Amino acid sequence: MTLDPDICWRATASRDRRFDGRFFIAVATTHIYCRPGCPARMPARHNVSFYSSAAAAESAGYRPCRRCRPDTAPGSAAWIGAPAHVGRAMRMIEAGALGANGDDAEHGVEALAARLGIGGRRLRQLFERHVGASPLEVARTHRAHLARRLLEHTAMPLEHIAQAAGYASARRLHAAVSATFKSSPGELRRGRRPRGARATAIELRLPARAPFNAAPLLAFLGARRVPGLEHVEGGAYRRAFVIGDDTGVLEALPDATGVTLSLSSASARALVPVAARIARMFDLDADTVAIAAHLRRDPTLRARVPVTGVRVPCAWDPFEHAVRALLGQQVTVAGACTLAGRLVARCGTPLPDALATPALTHVFPSPARLAAANLDGLGVTGARIAAIRGLAAAVAGGALDLGAHASLDDAVAALTALPGIGDWTAQYIALRGLGEPDAFPAGDLGVRKALGAGGRLASEREATKRAEAWRPWRGYAVIALWLDLAHDFTTGRTLAERTSE
To answer: In the beta sheet, which residues pair with residue 253?
Structure first.
């Protein structure tokens, strides 16, 4: 990505923290890179260069500053505005897609590119152009920074930290940390271990791009919590989960600067994928100010989108969300939650006694389990049962991979090819289940009402044409319009009101 040095320097000289994560400054005399708002002494202009990502700075030989901690700046301009392939690849890498070393056939760059529907060479070219570093360099940077955060903020043993960060052994962890930060794991941890921390505690701090207000997100999740699976209380989101062979319970406690994630009785290797999902659920990396500035150019949105913007409350899992979207067709939000709770109680796997609580009792059923389940008597129509079974069978059999779509259009086409899923449902799944920021349910009643005039509903064609100016963040505009209709996330319009499917 090409950065304008003069603009970057003006932002750096002003120490404007709003530019954190959009670019990074590197100082040749110290071999250190920083955030634009770093409180350290201002370097001479001729010693400074600029990079669009932390990985690019580190691949050029710079190490992160210990004062401003640039490794904790979420996201960067390098991939926020990059093509969809790069954005999806970045999310997959953060979720551990490249494994412990990225060199094996199963977890390598070629396999990652195949999931995106492109070749490995093309993916490397896109990363070089938009990120300034290769996929493997990005993965190495991500693992090293995660390891550092765990070393400094938890009391986990080195073996567990290595496992959580994706290293094959504590020895590999030691080598990577020493090479990246010029300090050993012991030196990074010395004097930083949190008081009262348990050596077995699995906890991670997930920073959010400012400004961050989690209240609407918690209200949205709370209004849609599934009994036995999720619980929202005391300003925290809790849920039971299963990832691979790991079953556990998580707690996400947000505040003004991010989310503190805690895992109970889950192995350390579950930490990375769980953290990636929670970051998506709370949309931590969104540059809400920039998105709001773009959307507020439309007079209709100016009064509905606050200057600080909105965030899209993504779902925990694409398959789970797709099932819940089907259950919610033609019923109220509360009714959909009741149906989902019945399905989880009948088909989900009970939590071990050591993890179960009155509020959390089961994990969501797997696609294979749901495809073979008897759903009669749950209060679900026969058409919905057939749609759920068809979806589950397609995912279980590999005919549908909800995490490997090449574009929004491809995802919608694959979903609408299944019985019982129309365009509105597919776009809704894409928005919250797949995290597609440009998803747009043109037939949504709320959207058409907001775009109409004189009490007249806008047509789907009119809504689609009007929303062209909102791209690539039409999904954020939809959330803002729904917020305006409901006044807050605690009030839910029924799917019957929103769609004619």
So the answer is: 260
Strand-pair category, 63-64 with 32-34:
parallel
Catalytic-residue membership of 6: no
Model confidence pLDDT, tens digit, residues 73-96: 544 444 344 456 777 788 788 777
Kindly tell me if the per-residue pLDDT of 322 is higher than 50.
Answer: yes
| The one catalytic residue among 20, 71, 438, 444 | 444
Do 484 and 476 form a contact (C-beta atoms < 8 A)? Answer: no
Mean pLDDT of 297-317: 93
Q: Is 34 a catalytic residue?
A: yes
Contact present, 363 and 257 (Cβ < 8 Å)? no
Question: Under 8 Å CB-to-CB from 364, ≥6 apart: which residues?
Answer: 226, 229, 242, 317, 320, 344, 348
The pLDDT-based confidence of 18 (bands split at 50, 70, 90) is low
Please answer whether residues 180 and 187 qualify as being in contact, where contact means their C-beta atoms are separated by less than 8 angstroms. Answer: no
pTM value is: 0.76
Q: Are 268 and 202 in contact (CB under 8 A)?
A: yes
**Catalytic residue (choose from 34, 314, 337, 347):** 34
Nearest-10 Cα torsion for 5, 9, 15, 19: -10
300: buried, middle or exposed (CB in 10 Å: 19+, 13-18, 0-12)?
Answer: middle
How far apart are alpha carbons 57 and 78 in whole angstroms? 12
